[in-house]
Amino acid sequence: MFCPISAVPNMAPRELSALEKFLGLKKPHKYSTQGVKKVPVLQINSGPPLVGLGTIACHLVKEAKRPDLLGDSAESRAVVQQWIEHRVTKLDRCRKDDVKTFLKDLDHYLQDMVYLAGNHFTLADILIYYGIHPFMVDMAIHEKEQFVNVTRWFDHVQHYPGVQHHLPLVTVLRNRIYTSRHH
Amino acid sequence: MKLFVSEGNPHCLKVLAALEETGVKCDVQYVSHEERVVPFISRPVLPALLPPTGPHLFSSNAICSYLFEVGGKDCSDLCNQWLEWETTELQPTLLQALHMAVVLEKGSEVSKVLQGPLNYLDQSLSKQNTAYLTGETLSVADIVMWAALYPILSGSSTILGERNSVKAWFERGAKLQSIQSAAQKVLQGKGLQGMKTFLQRQPNPQSKEIQTCTS
């Protein structure tokens, strides 16, 4: 049975380690998980542990002094937070039917966007990319064709320097989507 | 800037409270539950905010954080953590509790449903020993959590039981003008029953739990 439910949250510590490498953080952190949902936990020296994928990811970005990845205006910061929340509340507990709806909405949204927060690459792109990767890997080319904007965005993100890292590259139909680049 | 809300929708209580608390200037428009305000989401989703630039915001917590940031208050790591906990842990349980109390009319079950999150909240607050969730000053996390819990907790004095830390913290919020006036706008003085129409339109939270694969 297709059951991403348990697989996706378990990936959180790996995602966070990959994010650290992307951010160029020198000393790797160690992550534990808590509860049945295996929510990631980061023990930091300066206080109580941080809990939750979105919270820890934002913390790492601040630690790496890359505030630009959280958005460059109040509006884009809100957009970034919103998609991170969407990732942990919707995508991480999606069944296969729900994923299609998620991708359909995302596709509509990306129609006139390069990245989730507009023209700038942010943490939201990284976390949504990590989150939908397991579904994109399993999808046939004709299924991906239904989500042409998602596919274009996905390909941008997986080729963004340092992002793809631990995940296999997903093939997209280049000649259809990138016609202008090839001719 | 324009905020779209609907009566009886508990998520709208949060944004109306945040709007009043921050004093940010914004038009508020009441629409029906079925209104599709956000063009890129295929089902109706409220509240929604159309900021001066950029796309619609469709998450109540992101809207609240945005209003607080515009009002000059940023969200710390701890603040982020409470907001994430609210959406991932509290909301699914809360929706189940509201459904239980309003749609199934089994108010007596609510304490049991909510005991996990309330215990966690109580332990965290008593360990921290601060007046608010993130320290000695009010943050967006307090407003979001008060607004989320207000409908169910203000109507029943027994749900909190002996959880004195949550009690003291909750009473601080329940007294606020911003929370009370947002509750009045959303619940229309009908208490939990004010949310009945909204809750009847939501998928049954329990049956979803069963269908979700857990292996």
UniProtKB/TrEMBL annotation, chain A:
SUPFAM superfamilies reported in the protein's UniProt record: GST C-terminal domain-like
Keywords: Elongation factor, Protein biosynthesis
Matches recorded under InterPro entries: AIMP3/p18_C, Arc1-like_N, EEF1E1, Glutathione-S-Trfase_C-like, Glutathione-S-Trfase_C_sf
GO molecular function, one term: translation elongation factor activity
GO CC annotations, alphabetized: aminoacyl-tRNA synthetase multienzyme complex; cytoplasm; nucleus
Residue ranges of domain GST C-terminal in the record: 59-181
Example GO biological process: positive regulation of DNA damage response, signal transduction by p53 class mediator
Keyword Protein biosynthesis: yes
PROSITE patterns: GST_CTER (PS50405)
Listed name of the protein: Eukaryotic translation elongation factor 1 epsilon-1
Automatic annotation (TrEMBL), chain B:
Comp. bias intervals (Polar residues): 201-214
Region feature (Disordered): 201-215
Superkingdom per UniProt: Eukaryota
Start and end residues of each GST C-terminal domain: 72-198
Subcellular location: Cytoplasm
Family according to the record: Belongs to the class-I aminoacyl-tRNA synthetase family.
Listed name of the protein: Methionine--tRNA ligase, cytoplasmic
Portion of the full sequence shown: 1 to 215 of 914
